[in-house]
Write a structure and sequence with these properties.
By secondary structure, chain A is mainly alpha-helical. Chain A has helices at about 10-35, 40-45, 50-60, 70-80, 90-110, 115-125, 125-160, 165-215, 215-225, 240-250, 255-260, 275-285, 290-300, 315-325, 325-360, 370-390, 395-415, 425-450, 460-480, 490-495. Classes of the chains: A mainly alpha, B mainly alpha.
């Protein structure tokens, strides 16, 4: 995620397109608000969305601003090693469909499912497991949202020149306006608009990147002549570091609540049939920019066609301003805002649901009016994240780093494995979630304050994911006598379907 | 579409496949998953040792990481009472592509200025981008779609789950 200022983008066309984009978002938000009448509408879109909406919204929630700004910058810096972050997409959508989609959607047939911790609570008949997973989600959501809101502030500041601090608040208020009124319903339909915009913009920019760089062959020849390591399969990373990206972003994709909780929302479970294909196609097109711009800018800088970049995050803005028509550049900057806003909205929704629904359930109670409290907690979370986003860029970057890893280490064992293995036990789930939480937070914090550093290729996220899985297996093994007792008949039916 | 393997109702009232029909594929997938995670832990552990040992880490990861992810996929895809059936060959093909791609990238010589290009990229980069990233991209989604009605979710499955809801959570 970018934390440095972007080049100034204040041109009338870019500003006009950005305003037009925000107006469309507001119109969709207003429409969705009129249809939001219950907590189920607010948190799971009334379980009434179709396949196309599910696929595009999932893609939009998966990709944050990192795919458009930070990612190309990383390709520019470390070469093809950065591609290992997105390379698992060849497997993850199908893996998610087989492992998670059917089970989660069928769970919503037998129980009231509003959140991912709901699914964990149902699987293990455990309020503690549900509460612990909600705590993990809340911590990760605040960090993730802070980085995304900072990124949104940087984009708004670059387009309108309003200053970073004010831009952060402007961005927060815009997302909040439609999220608090229309909840996930507004978010989902905005995601469809935003996701379509991202895909179209990415495909167009990829074509311009190939033209500017002289095709893959032209870019390769230029880069190989000066920095051949960039085009090695691992870029300038070590092989273990690149493969570690693949592991954490591949297996970890099964534990991203802002994406997988959308499976609850699908109207008809039979529509899942074409979900992986549609999601993969949308993701593939939207990620073309990630690779194309990063490599093109490296070749263009090395050939002297453009000056060296101030920071890696300048790769996309500089390419757009120098090598694409202004209307396309404007569309892409709107897409960057779209990518960030769709992710932030999803986080707001799952964070508010954790406070409104999961924590009270963990303490054995329910809020009297979950819709009203959902809106209140949406505001509180957004304000906290915006305040955090005003802090130093280093701190915000630190908070953003562990979000993916925290989700992965706390949710993959208990949920992804647990929904497909009847030998999993309540104790295994609780201990694995606790392990993921403690290991991720402690290792990331110790690394942040520079108490120690890992060898190249080893990350706190990877260690936490591996350890939480091992703890899950071992504790479940030692408590296996209790496995059948924690599995309700209706949940067992879902797992055997 | 109906499923022929439905067993008699259990004491909780929900019909489910007979125990003797339970799939060994699921058991094997789980064992491979556990061993794969242990192996990946070992791969990370090598990084804390001198280079003579650390150099084995990427090789272990290159093989065990895709195997682990496929074990996870098999665990989700395999039906109680059935094996992998028509999913076996596509899974084997894609797993071979991914493991083969990673191993090739580790084994092939480092690129130089004169490295021949494959589809516009140096050989090892092309193997990773096109072999690991692009080729499998639409294989599994198409397999998922074309086997969905028979292997993933039938009308019988949905009816059985809805019957379970009517029987209550306990």
């Amino acid at each position: 995620m970018q934390s440095a200022e972007l080049p100034t983008l204040s041109q009338p066309i870019i500003g006009g397109v950005a305003i037009g984009y925000f107006v469309i978002v507001a119109i969709i938000g207003t429409w969705a608000t009129r249809r939001t009448r219950s907590a189920a509408d607010f948190f799971v879109a009334g379980q009434g969305i179709g396949l196309f909406t599910l696929a595009i919204a999932s893609m939009a929630a998966t990709l944050s601003g990192f795919a458009f700004i930070g990612g190309p910058g990383l390709v520019y810096t470390v070469g093809l090693g950065a591609v290992f972050i997105v390379l698992p997409a060849a497997l993850t959508n199908s893996m998610g469909a087989w492992v998670m989609a059917k089970r989660l959607r069928l769970l919503a047939e037998v129980r009231e499912m509003m959140t991912i911790p709901d699914a964990i609570g149902a699987r293990y008949d455990s309020r503690l497991a549900q509460g612990l997973s909600a705590v993990a989600i809340i911590i990760a959501v605040i960090g993730y949202m802070a980085t995304n809101i900072l990124a949104l502030g940087l984009v708004i500041d670059a387009i309108f020149g309003t200053g970073l601090s004010a831009s952060i608040w402007i961005g927060t208020v815009i997302v909040l306006a439609y999220s608090v009124s229309g909840g996930i319903l507004a978010g989902i339909y905005n995601d469809v608009f935003q996701g379509t915009l991202m895909a179209v913009a990415s495909a167009a920019v990829f074509w311009y990147a190939l033209q500017a760089g002289g095709g893959f062959a032209g870019m390769s020849r230029t880069i190989l002549a000066t920095e051949p390591g960039v085009l090695g399969p691992w870029g300038t990373l070590t092989p273990l570091a690149a493969l570690s990206f693949y592991f954490v972003f591949g297996l970890g994709s099964l534990g991203q609540p802002h994406v997988i909780h959308k499976f609850f929302m699908l109207r008809d479970p039979r529509r899942l049939k074409w979900f992986p294909l549609l999601m993969t196609a949308a993701l593939f097109v939207s990620l073309l920019l990630f690779i194309g711009v990063g490599l093109a800018m490296k070749a263009l800088v090395l050939s002297g066609a453009t000056p060296a970049l101030g920071t890696p995050d300048d790769a996309t803005p500089t390419f757009l301003l120098r090598f694409t028509p202004v209307p396309l550049a404007a569309l892409v900057f709107a897409s960057v805002a779209a990518a960030i806003m769709s992710t932030v909205n999803s986080f707001m929704s799952i964070g508010a649901a954790a406070f409104t629904h999961d924590l009270p359930v963990a303490f054995g109670t329910r809020m009297a009016n979950e819709l009203r409290w959902g809106r209140i907690w949406t505001v509180v979370i957004a304000l906290v994240a915006a305040v955090v986003a005003q802090a130093s860029g280093t701190l915000v970057a630190f908070l953003g780093i562990f979000g993916w890893g925290l989700f992965a280490s706390t949710l993959v064992p208990a949920l992804a494995v647990g929904l497909n293995w009847q030998g999993a036990t309540r104790a295994g789930a609780v201990w694995s979630i606790a392990t993921g939480l403690v290991i991720t937070l402690s290792l990331e914090t110790l690394a942040y304050v520079k108490v120690f550093s890992f060898p190249s290729g080893v990350t706190a996220s990877a260690i936490a994911l591996v350890l939480s899985l091992l703890v899950f297996f071992v504790v479940s093994r030692f408590t296996r006598a209790t496995a059948a007792a924690t599995l309700a008949p209706d949940v067992r039916a879902v797992m055997e379907a | 579409m109906t499923r022929a393997t439905s067993g008699a109702p259990h004491p909780d009232g929900i019909p489910r496949p007979r125990p003797e029909q339970r799939s060994d594929a699921r058991t094997w997938a789980f064992r491979v998953l556990v061993l794969g995670i242990v192996g990946i832990a070992g791969a990370y552990a090598t990084a804390f040792f001198p280079p003579s040992i650390a150099r084995f880490g990427p090789w272990i990861m290159a093989v065990l990481m895709p195997v682990t992810m496929f074990a996870m996929m098999v665990l989700g895809a395999v039906r109680t009472g059935r094996g992998l059936q028509s999913l076996a060959w596509p899974f084997a093909l894609v797993l071979t592509l991914v493991v083969g791609g990673f191993v090739c990238a580790l084994a092939l010589p480092v690129e130089t200025v004169d490295t021949p290009l494959w589809f516009g990229l140096p050989r090892r980069a092309a193997v990773i981008l096109f072999g690991v990233g692009l080729l499998p991209l639409f294989v599994l989604p198409l397999v998922y779609a074309f086997t969905f009605d028979a292997l993933t979710l039938t009308d019988d499955d949905i009816a059985r789950v809805r019957a379970a809801r009517m029987h209550g959570s306990r």
